[in-house]
């Protein structure tokens, strides 16, 4: 009887449509919010205690380093602003549409996927913060993934390397376009993914940079993703596949940025 | 086990699922995350009622699915299946021996992992699989096996705190027996 009742319940749940299933998942997952909050506060306390123990000499040294970095970044910002103005002028001359600006929102990673066969994260931003499904998630190093199911206060991030996250990319040096997808060699090394749909005669070399291609409407063009590791011929020599090492180590990241496009 | 026992089991399941989502160290060391639910299910199946087994399968399965990329409900049936099989055969199992607990825990954890994957593939999902999955499965199963005796010890101690103490031994002693008849 217990088995029958549970089986019926499971069949009903598995038969739910995507939005209803996502809503149910979000509602059940929200039970963990207080515990996520407690762990977040604990980490903050530990961080503050660590700050209190940092020596004055080290802090002075860090301030000096940050000032130097700030000066360099200011200079780069001035150059970037000038380049942006020039870009706008040229676009206006050619009659091209203006490319949209990226607005990012920082989020903390509060949980990771418990199962071994998916690559997802949970972040502390949700619907009330303006997060929507399929928005790109990045770090300063490069692309992390895209937003999956969105709850009111938390969201799921589907990482690059998960079977549900495919990214249109191009190789910066050769201009070749392909699709990044999950790799079977990425089961144990989460930073390895496959670059598929490449032409037969490819000029790929290890170390070349892979960027988002901007095709598909989810990820903007030009976000760094990874570097080429190696490539091989597949489909009786008709196509080429490459392995790409992701720039972002998703096992270590604690903070990410959601691009509110 | 009373209602307090049920709360204890469900609370342990809740904390276990939360720990899986928050503490990522086992994945870095072993290449796979520890699954706390099968060892708990082994304990419940060998000590609790069938309704408590069902409650852990439903609540634990839904909790773990809500924090993972699994479709909601997919972890429930493998847990329930393992729990019911053990519950039906529990009189035949040497459940008080840590070695037996380790073996049962390893088999149950491995079986639950395998059944979940089979169910996912049956539903048309495409989980991340490769040769490394064998290593992950082995690590998850062994970790589950090692965790099972610990689960018996911990939950046994906690249950003992909240229940009546067992009666003291009888005062009968062999050397004080009065024997009658001819010697």
Quickly describe the structure.
The complex is a heterodimer of chains A (261) and B (183). With 261 residues, chain A is α+β, with helices and mostly antiparallel strands.
Explain this structure to me?
The complex is a heterodimer of chains A (261) and B (183). The N and C termini of chain A lie far apart (51 Å). Chain A has four helices and twelve strands. In chain A, strands 1-2-5-4-3-12 form a six-stranded antiparallel barrel. In chain A, strands 6-7-8-11-10-9 form a six-stranded antiparallel beta barrel. Chain A is globular, with a radius of gyration of 22 Å. Chain A has 261 residues and is α+β, with helices and mostly antiparallel strands. In chain A, strand 1 and strand 2 form a beta hairpin. The longest helix of chain A has 39 residues, at 56-94. Chain B is mainly α and 183 residues long. Chain B has a single domain (3-159), classed as Orthogonal Bundle (Arp2/3 complex 21 kDa subunit ARPC3). Chain B has seven helices and no strands. In chain B, 45% of the residues are buried. The model of chain B has no long low-confidence stretch (mean pLDDT 88). Chains A and B meet through helix 1, helix 2, helix 3 and strand 1 of A and helix 1, helix 4, helix 5, helix 6 and helix 7 of B.
Q: Features of this protein?
A:
heterodimer, A: 261 residues, alpha+beta, six-stranded antiparallel beta barrel, 4 helices, globular, B: 183 residues, mainly alpha, Arp2/3 complex 21 kDa subunit ARPC3, 7 helices, 67% helix, elongated
Tell me how many strands of chain A there are.
Answer: 12
The gyration radius over C-alpha positions of chain B equals 20 Å
The gross shape of chain B turns out to be elongated
Number of DSSP-assigned strands of chain B = 0
In terms of structural class, how would the helical and strand content of chain A be classed?
Answer: alpha+beta
List the uncertain runs of chain B: none
Distance between the termini of chain A: 51 Å
Helix content of chain B: 55-70%
Order of helices and strands of chain B: HHHHHHH
Main pleated sheet of chain B: none
How much strand content do the residues of chain B show? under 5%
Output the number of helix runs of chain B.
7
Query: How does CATH name the architecture of chain B?
Result: Orthogonal Bundle
At the first level of CATH, the class of chain B is: Mainly Alpha
Strand arrangement, largest sheet of chain A?
1-2-5-4-3-12
Mean pLDDT of chain B: 88
């Amino acid at each position: 009887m217990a088995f029958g009742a549970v089986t019926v319940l499971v069949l009903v749940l598995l038969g739910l449509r995507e939005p209803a299933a996502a809503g149910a998942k979000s509602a059940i997952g929200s039970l963990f919010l207080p515990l996520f909050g407690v762990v977040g506060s604990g980490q903050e306390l530990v961080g503050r205690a660590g700050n209190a123990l940092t020596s004055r000499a080290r802090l002075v040294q860090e301030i000096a380093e940050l000032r130097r970095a700030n000066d360099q970044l200011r200079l780069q910002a001035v150059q970037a602003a000038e380049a942006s103005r020039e870009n706008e002028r040229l676009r206006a001359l050619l009659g091209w549409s203006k490319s949209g600006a990226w607005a990012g929102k920082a989020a903390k990673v509060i949980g990771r996927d418990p199962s071994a066969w998916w690559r997802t994260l949970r972040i502390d931003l949700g619907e009330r913060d303006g997060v929507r499904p399929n928005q790109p998630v990045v770090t300063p190093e490069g692309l992390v993934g895209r937003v999956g199911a969105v709850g009111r206060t938390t969201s799921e991030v589907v990482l690059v390397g998960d079977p549900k996250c495919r990214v249109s990319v191009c190789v910066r040096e050769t201009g070749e376009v392909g699709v990044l997808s999950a790799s079977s060699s990425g089961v144990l090394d989460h930073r390895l993914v496959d670059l598929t749909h490449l032409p037969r005669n490819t000029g790929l070399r290890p170390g070349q940079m892979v960027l988002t291609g901007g095709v598909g409407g989810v990820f903007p063009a030009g976000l760094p993703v990874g570097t080429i590791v190696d490539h091989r011929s597949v489909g009786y020599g008709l196509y080429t596949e490459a392995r790409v090492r992701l720039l972002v180590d998703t096992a270590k990241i604690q903070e990410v940025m959601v691009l509110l496009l | 086990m009373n209602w307090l026992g049920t709360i204890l089991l469900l609370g342990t399941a809740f904390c276990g699922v939360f720990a899986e989502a928050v503490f990522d160290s086992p994945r870095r060391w072993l290449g796979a995350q520890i699954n706390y639910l099968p060892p708990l299910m082994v304990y419940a199946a060998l000590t609790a009622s069938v309704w408590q087994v069902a409650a852990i399968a439903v609540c634990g399965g839904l909790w773990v699915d809500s924090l993972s990329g699994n479709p909601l409900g997919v972890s429930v049936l493998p847990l329930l299946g393992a729990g019911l099989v053990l519950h039906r055969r529990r009189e035949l199992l040497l459940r008080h021996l840590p070695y037996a607990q380790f073996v049962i825990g390893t088999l149950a954890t491995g079986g639950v992992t395998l059944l979940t994957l089979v169910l996912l593939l049956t539903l048309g999902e495409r989980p991340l699989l490769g040769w490394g999955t064998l290593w992950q499965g082995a690590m998850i199963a062994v970790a589950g096996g090692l965790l099972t005796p610990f689960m018996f010890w911990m939950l046994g101690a906690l249950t003992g705190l909240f229940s009546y103490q067992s009666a003291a031994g009888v005062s009968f002693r062999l050397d004080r027996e009065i024997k009658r008849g001819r010697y």
